[in-house]
Each structure stands twice: as C-alpha cells, then as structure tokens.
Design goal:
Blueprint (H helix, E strand, L loop, with lengths): L1 H23 L1 H5 L17 E7 L5 E7 L7 E5 L6 H15 L2 E5 L13 H16 L7 E6 L2 H9 L6 E5 L5 H8 L5 H4 L7 H4 L6 E6 L7 H10 L5 E6 L11 H12 L1
Parallel strand pairs: 3-4, 3-5, 5-6, 6-7, 7-8
Antiparallel strand pairs: 1-2, 2-4
Helix pairs in contact: 4-5
Length: about 270
C-alpha cells in the first residue's frame, strides 16, 4: 500500500512538473525564432528598404519593403512561425518580382532584429504599424494582406479592423488551441495555452474578399481548418484553393497548382 501511495505521489508530482514546464516553455514550441545581429546587413538582388517601426510600449519591429518601379499595389506579408527575414525575405522578393507588387514583410517580437515583450495583444497589434506604413504609400484598395500559417492570425486581426483590397490565407489554422489539442490530445491545452490566437471569430466579421489556400495532406494544420474558415467566412467574395497532396511546408513544390492559385488572386 505504501509503495502504491509513493508511486501515486511520484506520478502526480511528475505530471505537475511536466505541465509546469510546458506552460513556461510553450513559447519555444510556438515561436521557432532566432535572433539576427542588429548590425546585420540584408542582401537581396531586388531594390528594398529596411524598416524599424516603434510600438507604443517601446518595442521596435524590423521589416523589409521590396519595391517595384510601377507596382500594382502592395502585399503586406505575415510569415510563418519558423525563420526570420534573412530567410523570409527571399520569398518576399520572389513574390514581389513575380507579381509586380511591392511587398512589406516584418519579423514578430523575438524574431530577427525585432525586439519587445511577447504578449498576444501586443504582438497582434504590431501588425497595424506595418498596415499604417503601407497606407502612407498606397491607398487601402491597393493593399493585399497575406498570412501564411501562424501569420494568418496576424493577417485576420489586421483585416477585421481595416479595409484592405483582399485577404489571402495560406495553410492557416482555425485557432492555436485547435492545433494544440490536435498535437497534444492528452494535455489540458485550454488551461496551459497562454497564446490563444484564433481566426474563427475574425473571419465571421471580415467583409473583404478572402482567398484561402490549403494543402489536402497538411499534417500540422489539417485541411479541414481551411475548409472551416472558408465555410464561416462572411466575405462577399471568397474562393478556396485546395492543393491536392500538399503538406504544410511544401506547397510551392506543387508549382503549377500553387502558382495557378496565386495567379488567379494576384494577376
């Protein structure tokens, strides 16, 4: 009996330790970020400008603005949870050159050169800094917001409070809580999760055209997340682009189908 009691105490203590560690170290699971030295010099073939925008709480967010000579408009790009602008800048450059749009992209707090305390509301509101920057150079009907994976949370947060030309979501979850429950079904994710990013309520109020791209074989953000967002969207114009066989990080490998979808949206 004493052995059983000791075992149960050990089990309970172990569970408490594991849950505590998950609570305090969940940022490492959510944000796969790395720092870039402040004196790092970005190098890209296309014309670009490096941006440093300041938030009200003193945080400084780093971004890049890729320019075209006669742009069709501007794409405000919200990138995924892994990598920084030294990597994502290459995709922003390709997007800009392929479709002849200016592209503005930024690193979230704790990514690259971006500094500031991480908190959900602060991080989401940083997106408005870059939207307002875009408005200084373009009218709202020339702004497209593009959210990829984690970036979809930032994209819908911006779009629900503004009036851009369109919203594009790629491989975007319904909510971070749904992802946590899917990845860790035996944990009380609702109690542990500090960052409860969501898109469900946002798409129910966003009134601009929405385009959703999602791989049918996405093992991180299941395909039905994209379907549900499309179904709940109240946008006056909406289109869903399934990438048959596409996973979470390889949609561009399905070059014809993927770029056909972007062609339909951006050309």
């Amino acid at each position: 009996m004493r052995r059983l009691i000791r075992f149960l105490k050990f089990l309970v203590l172990s569970i408490i330790v594991v849950l505590t560690m998950l609570y305090f170290f969940q940022e490492k699971l959510i944000f796969h970020s790395g720092e870039i030295p402040q004196d790092y010099v970005f190098q890209f073939e296309s014309e670009f400008e490096e941006l440093f925008l300041s938030a009200e709480d003193g945080a400084v967010l780093n971004g890049l603005h890729f320019r075209q000579e006669n742009p069709k408009g501007v794409i405000l790009y919200c990138h995924g949870n892994a990598g920084q602008l030294d990597d994502w800048g290459n995709w922003a450059q390709e997007l800009s050159n392929r479709y002849q749009y200016d592209v503005v992209i930024w690193d979230y707090r704790g990514y690259g050169k971006s500094k500031g305390k991480r908190r959900q509301d602060l991080m989401l509101n940083d997106g408005f800094l870059f939207y307002e920057y875009c408005k200084r150079h373009f009218t709202e009907n020339q702004i497209s917001i593009f959210g990829r994976s984690l970036g979809g949370f930032f994209a819908t947060h911006i779009a629900k409070e503004t009036n851009p030309h369109r919203l594009i979501l790629e491989s975007t979850p319904t909510s971070l809580l749904d992802i946590a429950r899917n990845q860790y079904p035996y944990l009380p994710a609702g109690l542990l999760l500090k960052y409860k990013f969501q898109n469900l309520q946002n798409v129910e109020v966003i009134g601009v055209p929405i385009h959703i791209i999602h791989g049918t074989s996405d093992n991180l953000v299941p395909f039905d997340h994209g379907e549900k967002l499309f179904r709940l969207s109240v946008a006056p114009s909406k289109k869903f682009y399934p990438i048959d066989g596409g996973g979470h990080n390889n949609l561009s490998n399905f070059e014809k189908v993927y770029f056909d979808a972007l062609d339909a949206v951006l050309n």
